[in-house]
């Protein structure tokens, strides 16, 4: 039987699923709110995540992902805010030319859009959905259009409108931490005096009232892209001292001033870094976690990715788990037998995988910041 699958949200998980279903000749359409480029920050890719991307994507698209990735990160080291070393963790280079250690979010999304053409429909902001008498589901969009399918996949991210409509009680918990995420061109940081030992590894700084991560995104030789660092400053909102209604309205330039002010007493090599952040790529966000991760119950509406399991950035896991969800959901949707049973099994698997990732991300966050 031919199934029609509506995917709400053309982000990482939704686009992976679209590729996977298309390769299995399943009728799939992605309804995406807007044709807005993704932010330019680094995404760590785990071996399980890379395997899931490989499973979902046609070989040329996966090849483009590899070609635009960072192959290797030289481990991790932790310091206090005066750059006194705490510990370090080496990650020996296995020399694998196809290793994928990290990707740029915006580039990954562009790669994932390759070849999907009219499968992705823009300007389709999900508003509501209802079950149809035939057991399917009809989605309605804010532009007045609607579409019907056998399955609706909520892949619309951490602020999922589908979740708000379908599972209104499943609100991710605010962990109390506010992150200011920014981008620093690598050449500018190095010219500005970034110490050698911080250049090619993940630097973690755990201070008394804030923590900070500096993560290199160094493209492969020959890639037409500028190397950079993703800089993530985290503080509990009480320690940050900027009310949410002010913080989330600040421009990138004003956020840079907050960073410079809150790190004024830090080691000059750390404090000086914030001079180089790009205001246009600087924004604040709240760290949240889906605790617990819950299945969405029986029926043709199922979640995927952040919509089901929002987690703090600390684990570098959300995109990887979204890709794993996509691979698992494809398997469920093409399995012979009852669709309802396959979807129930998919959701059990998603809850197990999502719970493990959320718990690990929260555990890692708790190691370097004060959580509510
Ligand atoms: C600074 C930062 C660093 C991160 N680092 C990592 C990392 O190192 N490794 C990692 O694995 N993960 C990381 N993550 C998390 C990762 O980006 C997410 O987990 C991942 O993008 C989730 O994929 P998704 O498909 O569920 O949602 P998204 O990629 O967020 O996609 C959701 C899509 O739905 C669309 N949408 C939203 N609402 C609607 C609507 N009403 N109607 C239609 N469409 C809608 C959005 O426009 C978007 O395109 C990081 C996140 C941030 C912010």
From TrEMBL:
Task: Supply the InterPro entries for this chain.
Answer: FAD-bd, FAD/NAD-bd_sf
Q: Name one GO molecular function term.
A: FAD binding
Keyword field contains Oxidoreductase: yes
Ordered alphabetically, the record's keywords are: FAD, Flavoprotein, Monooxygenase, Oxidoreductase
Q: Per the database entry, which stretches of residues form a coiled coil?
A: none
Superkingdom, taxonomy of origin: Bacteria
Keyword Oxidoreductase attached:
yes
User: Where in the numbering of this chain does the FAD-binding domain appear?
Assistant: 277-359
Per its UniProt record, what Pfam families does this chain match?
FAD_binding_3 (PF01494), NAD_binding_8 (PF13450)
Specify the species: Amycolatopsis eburnea
Name used for this protein in its record: FAD-dependent monooxygenase
């Amino acid at each position: 039987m031919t199934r029609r699958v509506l995917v709400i949200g053309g982000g990482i998980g939704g686009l992976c699923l679209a590729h996977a279903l298309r390769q299995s000749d399943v009728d799939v359409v992605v309804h995406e709110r807007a044709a807005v480029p993704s932010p330019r920050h680094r995404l760590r890719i785990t071996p399980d995540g890379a395997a899931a991307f490989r499973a979902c994507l046609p070989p040329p698209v996966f090849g483009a992902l590899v070609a635009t990735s960072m192959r290797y990160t030289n481990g991790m080291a932790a310091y206090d805010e005066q750059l006194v070393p705490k510990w370090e963790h080496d990650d020996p280079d296995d020399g694998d030319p196809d290793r994928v250690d990290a990707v740029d979010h915006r580039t990954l999304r562009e790669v994932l859009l390759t070849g999907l053409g009219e499968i992705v429909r823009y300007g389709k902001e999900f508003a509501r959905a209802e079950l149809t008498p035939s057991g399917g589901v009809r989605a309605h969009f804010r532009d007045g259009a609607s579409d019907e399918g056998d399955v609706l996949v909520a892949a619309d991210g951490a602020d999922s409108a589908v979740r708000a409509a379908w599972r209104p009680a499943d609100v991710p918990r605010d962990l109390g931490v506010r992150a200011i995420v920014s981008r620093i061109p690598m050449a500018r940081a190095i010219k500005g005096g970034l110490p050698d030992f911080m250049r090619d590894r993940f630097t973690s700084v755990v201070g008394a009232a804030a923590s900070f991560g500096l993560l290199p995104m160094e493209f492969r030789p020959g890639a037409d892209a500028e190397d950079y660092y993703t800089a993530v400053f985290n503080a509990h909102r009480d320690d940050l001292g900027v009310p949410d209604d002010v913080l989330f309205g600040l421009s990138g330039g004003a956020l840079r001033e907050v960073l410079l002010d809150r790190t004024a007493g830090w080691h000059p090599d750390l404090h000086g870094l914030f001079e180089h952040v790009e205001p246009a790529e600087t924004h604040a966000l709240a760290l949240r976690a889906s605790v617990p991760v819950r299945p969405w119950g029986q029926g043709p509406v199922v979640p995927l990715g952040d919509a089901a399991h929002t987690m703090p950035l600390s684990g570098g896991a959300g995109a990887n788990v979204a890709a794993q969800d996509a691979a698992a959901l494809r398997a469920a949707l093409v399995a012979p037998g009852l669709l309802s049973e396959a979807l129930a099994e998919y959701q059990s698997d998603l809850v197990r995988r999502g719970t493990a990732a959320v718990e690990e991300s929260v555990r890692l966050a708790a190691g370097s910041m004060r959580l509510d």
